[in-house]
Amino acid sequence: MKKILKQLAEQSTSGDLYVRLAEMYLYEHEYGLAFGAVNRGLEKGHLSDTHAAQQLYVRIGDFLGVSCFTNYEDAVSSLSQ
Prior knowledge:
Blueprint: H1 2-11, H2 16-27, H3 31-44, H4 50-64, H5 72-79
Helix pairs in contact: 1-2, 2-3, 3-4
């Protein structure tokens, strides 16, 4: 299921499928994969609920211990330094 969803996410013009994939990874405690997927979804854009995706990004970052930020922009800025 995840393999197919990943292929569809790559082809989609929206980042929504990457966000859904991140939720699936999170449910299975695959935090690194979840973080990467939600990040790709946010970068791709055209999301149906950008705020929810940003919250998911911060939540997954908290699980990984890489985020103490309240929003996506601050977290990305910190990671790129």
